[in-house]
Structures are given as structure tokens and as C-alpha cells.
């Protein structure tokens, strides 16, 4: 045997008793298993889908009203020769634009809801919040109609009376919409 091999063997013989007493190395720590995700609760999925359906229906109606308001308002504004009708047209365009923005935010919220895995209680609470918002808005709509009627009745010129008629018209639709959605929400 070459001299070097003898040295390694001699070293192994000297270390053998110490190695025999040594504990085996600790096993490598196995990665903690990630528990499989729970399957979605069918009742929660149904509650979420019902909430989304109600929201979608509301935003579809509001978007349709917004587009109709903008189209008719622009036509009245552009083609009318009198201040009363032009003022109604301006109100329709302005309110239609605001309704369109609100509907856009509503649709954005709907998109975010689709991936939420929340319990039924969460969706019931969301339904209650939505109902409350619609009913509070219906109360505000009464103020819009009242303000518009006062502008029509006491306005000093056709411009103010036309603006009042436009506000009353928009407020009337929004009252019917908000009341129907608030009373019809689950």
C-alpha cells in the first residue's frame, strides 16, 4: 500500500471509536406541507353570484339611463333655440355624465368581487350595505326633485326654470331607480 493510503486508513482506525459513538446527522427538515385549500362553499358562491347579479343589473340600468340622458341632453342643448329647453339639455348631459361615472365605478367593483372567496355572512352584509346605500340615495333624490320643483316654480327666468325641470326629471328617475333597488335588494 502506498504510504498515503496507509495514513488515511490509520486515521480512519483512530477515529472509528469516536464515529461509532456519534449520533447520526439530523435528517434534513422536510418542508412543511401546505394544506390543500378548502373547496369553495357552494352557499357562499351562490350568495356572491346573487350579489354580483343585483349589482350588475343596477349598473346596467344606470348606464342605460346615463347614455340616454347624455344623448337627449346633447340633442336638446344643440338644437333648441330657447333657454328653457337648452337648460334642460345641459342638466341631462351633466347628470348623465355623473351617472356614467358612478356606473363605471360600480362595474369596477363588480370585477373585483368575482375572485373574492368570502363566507355567506360577508355577502349578506354586502347586500345590507347596498340596500342602505340605495335607500339613502332615494332620500337624497327627493331633495333633488324638491329643489328642481322650487327652481321651476320660483325661477326668475327660463334658464333657471329649465335647469329646475332638468334637475326634477333626473331626480325623479333616480328616486324610482334607487327606491326599486333598495326595496328589491335581498
TrEMBL record:
Matching InterPro entries, A to Z?
DUF6992
Would you tell me the protein name for this molecule? Answer: Uncharacterized protein
Q: Where is the signal peptide?
A: 1-22
What residue ranges are annotated as transmembrane? Answer: 93-111, 132-155
Organism encoding this protein: Polyangium spumosum
Q: Return the Pfam families for the record.
A: DUF6992
Q: Which UniProt keywords apply?
A: Membrane, Signal, Transmembrane, Transmembrane helix
Amino acid at each position: 500500500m502506498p504510504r498515503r493510503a496507509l495514513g488515511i486508513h490509520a486515521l480512519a482506525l483512530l477515529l472509528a471509536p469516536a464515529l461509532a459513538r456519534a449520533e447520526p446527522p439530523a435528517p434534513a427538515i422536510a418542508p412543511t406541507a401546505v394544506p390543500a385549500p378548502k373547496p369553495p362553499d357552494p352557499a357562499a358562491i351562490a350568495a356572491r353570484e346573487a350579489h354580483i347579479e343585483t349589482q350588475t343589473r343596477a349598473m346596467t340600468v344606470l348606464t342605460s339611463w346615463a347614455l340616454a340622458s347624455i344623448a337627449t341632453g346633447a340633442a336638446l342643448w344643440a338644437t333648441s333655440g330657447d333657454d328653457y329647453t337648452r337648460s334642460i339639455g345641459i342638466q341631462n348631459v351633466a347628470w348623465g355624465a355623473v351617472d356614467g361615472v358612478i356606473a363605471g365605478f360600480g362595474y369596477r367593483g363588480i370585477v373585483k368581487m368575482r375572485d373574492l372567496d368570502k363566507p355567506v355572512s360577508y355577502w349578506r352584509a354586502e347586500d345590507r350595505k347596498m340596500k342602505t346605500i340605495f335607500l339613502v340615495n332615494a332620500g337624497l333624490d327627493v331633495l333633488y326633485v324638491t329643489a328642481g320643483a322650487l327652481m321651476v316654480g320660483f325661477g326668475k327666468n327660463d334658464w333657471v326654470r329649465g335647469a329646475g325641470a332638468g334637475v326634477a326629471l333626473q331626480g325623479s328617475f333616480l328616486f324610482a331607480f334607487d327606491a326599486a333597488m333598495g326595496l328589491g335588494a335581498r
